[in-house]
Amino acid sequence: HGASTAISIDHLPSLKEICAKIGGACADTESALATAISDELTHENKEQDEVLVEGQDGYLKKLLISCARAVEAKDMSAVDMMVPELRKMVSVSGDPHQRLGAYIVEGLVARLASSGHSIYKALKCKEPRSSDLMSYMHFLYEACPYFKFGYMSANGAIAEAVKGEDMIHIIDFGISQGAQWVPLLQALATRPGGPPTVRITGIDDSLSAYARGGGLDLVGRRLSHIAGLCKVPFEFHSVAVAGDEVKEGHLMVIPGEALAVNFTLELHHIPDEAVSTANHRDRILRLVKSLSPKVVTLVEQELNTNTVPFKQRFAETLDYYTAIFESIDLTLPRDDRERINMEQHCLAREIVNIVACEGAERVERHEVFGKWKGRLMMVGFRPCPLSSLVNATIRTLLQSYSANYQLAERDGVLYLGWKNKPLVVSSAWH
C-alpha cells in the first residue's frame, strides 16, 4: 500500500484496481433481552437472511445478503451489477446501516479478490500515527459501555475471589493499555488491614503494541505509578508474545499466591481446532486450569463467526455490527472525522477480517457463550456466578448511557445488550 496510511472507503484505488482485474466494476423483534438470550442459548441455526425489514435499510440489508451469496458463488455478473448499486447506497458518514454497509462491501470485494489478509493488515498497521490510533481506541472506550462492562464485571469477580489474600497474581491475556487494572488497584488500596501485594503478568498483542508506540514496559510503568500513588506493593511482568504462543514458563506462577486469569475480548483471537490441529484455544485453557487459579474471567462478544458456513457468518456479522453501529450513533455527529476514524480503525478491520478472510488469516473467530461454556467445562472449570454487587455496579454504569442498553443475568452470567440483542457476555470460572 505504499504511502497510503489507511483504508478509506471513499478512496480505494488499490481495491478498485484489484476488482478491475477480476471482472469489471468494483465491485425488531419486541422480545425482551432475556428472551433473546434464551434464543441464543437454545441456539440459533435459523435462517437469518430471510428477515424482511421495511424501507431503505431493509433493501440495503437484502442487497448486501444477495451480494454475499453472489460472491460466495463467484457469480461475477451478479456481483458486477450489485457492487456499483451498493456503493451508491452506503457511506462512512451515513446512518448506521450505511456506515456498516460501506465496510461490509469492502469486505466482500476483498473476499472476491482473495485480498482480505492484506487489507486486514493495512487496516491494522497502516494507521496514521500510533498516538492517533490510541485516541480512536479511547474514543470507542468512551462512546459505548462494552469495554467498561467487561472490565468492571471481571474486576468484580476477581476482587471477590481474592478477598483476604495477601499475595495476588493476575495474568492478563491481551493486556492492551492496562486500563482495566487501574480501578482494581485503587479498590485494593482501601482494603481494611492494608493492601495486598499485587503482581500483574501482561500478555501483549500486536495492535496494542502499535497503538502504545512501544512495548509492555509502558504499561508496566503506568501501572507501577498508579500502584505507588495508591501505596499498593506492586510488580509487573511482561510477556511480549501472542496469546497462542504462551507456555507455562512465560507465566512465572509462584506457589502460595492467589492467581486470577483474565480473558477480556481476547480468547476469540486464539485459534482453535478449526484452524490447526494444535488447537491453541483449548491448549491455553488446559494450561490455565493446570495452574489452579482462584478465578478465570471471560468476556466475549456474543457472536458466532468461528466455524459456521460463510452465509450464516455473514448474516450474523451483519446483524451484530448493525446493533454496534446503532449504539454508537448517538455519540457524535455522523460526519465527525474522529468518529469516522474510530469506526474505520477499530471496527472496520474486524468486519473485513470476518467477511474476507479464511483459514489462519481469519483471526476474528468469535463463539457464543454456550460454546465457551462447553470448552471451559471440558477442561474441568466450573461456573463461578457473578454476584449481585457486580450486577448492581454495572446497572449504575449504564445509567450514564442510552436506555436502549440492557443488562440481563442468567445463571450468574451477565449479558449486555442493545435493545433486545445480546452483544457482550461476562462470566467467571474456577
Could you name the key traits of this structure?
8 strands; Rossmann fold; 2 domains; 430 residues; 17 helices; alpha/beta
Give an overview in words:
It is a single chain. The protein has helices spanning 13-23, 33-42, 55-73, 76-89, 96-112, 116-125, 130-143, 146-161, 181-189, 206-212, 217-230, 248-251, 280-290, 310-328, 337-356, 369-378, 388-398; strands at residues 167-173, 197-203, 234-239, 258-264, 295-301, 405-410, 413-418, 421-429. It has 430 residues and is α/β, with parallel strands linked by helices. The protein has two domains: 13-140 and 309-361, no CATH class; 144-304 and 378-429, Rossmann fold (3-Layer(aba) Sandwich). The chain has an eight-stranded mixed beta sheet. Strand 1, helix 9 (181-189) and strand 2 form a beta-alpha-beta unit. Helix 4 packs antiparallel against helix 5, helix 6 runs antiparallel to helix 15 and helix 7 packs across helix 15. The longest helix is centred in the C-terminal third of the chain and has 20 residues, at 337-356. It is globular. It holds the Pfam family GRAS. Residues 58-118 are annotated as: Leucine repeat I (LRI). Residues 356-430 are annotated as: SAW. Residues 137-202 are annotated as: VHIID.
